[in-house]
Design brief:
CATH architecture of the largest domain: 3-Layer(aba) Sandwich
Strand content: 5-15%
Largest sheet: 7 strands, mixed
GO molecular function: peptidoglycan beta-N-acetylmuramidase activity
Number of strands: 12
CATH topology of the largest domain: Rossmann fold
Distance between the termini: 47 Å
Order of helices and strands: HHHEEEHEEEEHEHEHEEEHHHHHHHH
InterPro entries: NamZ, NamZ_C, NamZ_N
Length: 422
């Protein structure tokens, strides 16, 4: 009887102390969840379930010994909570060069702003910009490099430029007989695949290969697809070594510990991005010039049709010259939109695009890139010329989706060959 009472006592005590312990554990990583509502991501960290490729240093540190290392990194490239460059350098890894993508190595450049080569103030290492004079490492850039490392957090969307950087780095490595080590990371939008397949005629800096808007791959899976489908320049193959994410599946919720770019500064923005970035080819602002970009939509000409409004301002490092700067922009507030719907439906949201096109008074200007002053024209973002014309003609969302077939289903079948995770 006494042993039973002791067991019950222990269980009661554990019930009360576990949330406190969970909070302490997460405090060490700068995340202090409400103990009554610890999310899936926090539980995974507490239990040690999800471990990024970078975090598994025991799997690749021995492989780096005696090699001159080049690293393609940005602020998302962390081991634990510290920059991977700093950690690896402190552990004696011979890092000789850093390569920075859009937004720069330290992530302080706005979207679309060209970045110059420089020297990192903290480490003294040379930083080669892959979003400036050239987007592909040159033979000279790689001359003193034995092994390249790619460690950047992606968000799983075709027009997010980090997958283009990956492709150019793979091509450079293949052409110069260098191996590429990929430290893989989860895809926060990896639980679905949707959107029109890119028309090769619309190939650009915001879309290179025939994939849908939401591609459903991690960086390492996409690298395998680039090799396997022969999409690298001249059909070259890059030698890859991959450190997989531990205990990850595509169906898992994954909250990024570091914002992937200045204007994707919340999990809500990351989840809405696949649907809202299409507006960058329109006259509608997605909230650039606020501290809640990609969670709102608006335009000054929609005053009277919507009550919600925001006023874009110049914000250094985020949006210096945002669309509709200093003008109240009326439209939709999506900050409380339940993004679980994307997981349930497996679809991007087209209804907002259709709604705001129908509400806008001067429809001839809605898709006018020269008027919009945005990051890219609509057809290149969509990957097809059909979507714009379908909306103009009043096609239903279902009619639009039907036009994405059979190409979208064929992509889904092809994608399965390259999956590293369920």
């Amino acid at each position: 009887m006494k042993s039973k009472i002791n067991l019950i006592t222990v269980l009661v005590i554990l019930t009360y102390i576990m949330p406190v312990n969970a909070q302490r554990i997460n405090s060490a990583s700068g995340i202090v969840p409400n103990p009554r509502s610890v999310n899936v991501n926090d539980l995974n960290r507490i239990k040690g379930k999800i471990k990024t490729g970078a975090d598994q240093t025991e799997q690749y540190l021995p492989y780096l010994q005696g090699k001159r290392i080049g690293m393609v990194v940005n602020p998302t490239s962390v081991i634990g909570t510290s920059a991977s460059v700093d950690i690896l350098k402190a552990r004696g890894v011979n890092i000789v060069k850093i390569f920075g993508p859009e937004h720069g190595f330290r992530g302080d450049a706005s979207a679309g702003i060209k970045v110059d080569d420089s020297f990192d103030a903290k480490t003294g290492l040379p930083v080669i910009s892959l979003y400036g004079k050239h987007n592909k490492p040159s033979k000279e850039d790689l001359a003193n490099v034995d092994l390249m490392i790619f460690d950047i957090q992606d968000v799983g969307v075709r027009f997010y430029t980090y997958i283009n950087t990956l492709q150019y780095v793979m091509e450079a490595c293949a052409e110069n007989n260098k191996e590429l080590l990929i430290l893989d990371r989860p895809n926060p939008n990896g639980f679905y695949v949707d959107g029109p397949i890119l028309d090769p005629k619309l190939k650009s800096g915001i879309g290179v290969n025939p994939i849908p808007i939401v591609h459903g791959l991690t960086i390492a899976e996409y690298a395998q697809m680039l090799n396997g489908e022969g999409w690298l320049a001249k059909g070259v193959k890059c030698r890859l070594k991959i450190i997989k994410v531990a205990n990850y599946t595509h169906g898992m919720n994954y909250e990024l510990p570091v914002k992937p770019s200045p204007n994707l500064n919340t999990q809500q923005a990351i989840m809405l991005y696949p649907s809202l970035c299409l507006f960058e080819g329109t006259i509608i602002s997605q909230g650039r010039g606020t501290y809640f970009p990609f969670t709102v939509l608006g335009n000054p000409d929609l005053k009277g049709k919507y009550t919600f409004y925001f006023t874009p301002k110049s914000i250094k490092g985020m949006s210096e010259t945002p669309l509709h700067q200093d003008k109240a922009s009326y439209g939709l507030d999506l900050r409380k939109y339940n993004t679980d719907k994307f997981k349930k439906t497996g679809k991007i949201n087209l209804s907002w695009l259709i709604e705001l096109y129908n509400a806008y008074p001067d429809k001839a200007k809605f898709f006018d890139f020269t008027q919009s002053n945005q990051m890219g024209n609509f057809d290149k973002l969509a990957g097809t010329s059909d979507l714009k014309n379908q909306i103009i003609k009043g096609k239903s969302e279902q009619e639009i989706r039907d036009s994405w077939e059979p190409a979208l289903s064929q992509y889904k079948i092809m994608r399965k060959k390259y999956l590293l995770y369920q």
